[in-house]
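Changelog-linked ticket: glutathione example.
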Amino acid sequence: MLTLYAARGACSIIPHIALEEAGAAYRLHFVDYAGGENLTGEYRAISPLGRVPALMTEDGPLTENVAILSYIAMRYPEAALAPIGDALAFARVQSFNLFIATNIHVAFRQIAFPDGYADGDAAAAALRAKVPELADRYFALIEAKLADGRPYVHGDAFTLSDIYLFAYANYLRMGDRGDPALVPNVIAHRTRIRARPAVERVLRVEGLAEAWAG
Ligand SMILES: N[C@@H](CCC(=O)N[C@@H](CS)C(=O)NCC(=O)O)C(=O)O
């Protein structure tokens, strides 16, 4: 059986929702960051940087959200979480997810982990100060994609990309990393995805049902 290594409210919520949407049988393991579990050799053997998410499969661990999501979509094809039989359509899902992973996620990390980019308090302040500008620029591109009224990122079908965007739209609402008022289509999309039963189940398990309400 699969085991998802996660932290409450972290980006591991993306594969957590994907597993629920897929109807997968899985165990959930919240990594004890406060207790230093992420620093242990045992956890580093699963996730070399000590990060979440990590997915333990019957054949060994898998890290990186984009890869984990693709694996879930292919392992549970009946859930139709991605157009896995269409090379270009699948590549578009990957392209969107990687856009968030390599731009928005990396920018948001500058807030929580500025010392991963540069040393010193002045550098940390400068890195944090840059994030709203970066986030607004990146989210504007997603806003434009949704402007034709499509219900989901890639059109009429729910995919992995909707889960990815949902997570980062919630982080955008935190107030310190870009202006949600500039992207009403993104926020309306967030509300649609929030209403899905699988999402509700995951938010309850992660203790976020109220914080991510609305
Ligand atoms: N590129 C990775 C990034 C994973 C990542 O940054 N995870 C964060 C939580 S959202 C984490 O584990 N942070 C703790 C740390 O970096 O020590 C992915 O998308 O899976």
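Closing comment: Example verified and attached. The radius of gyration is 17 Å. The mean pLDDT is 97.
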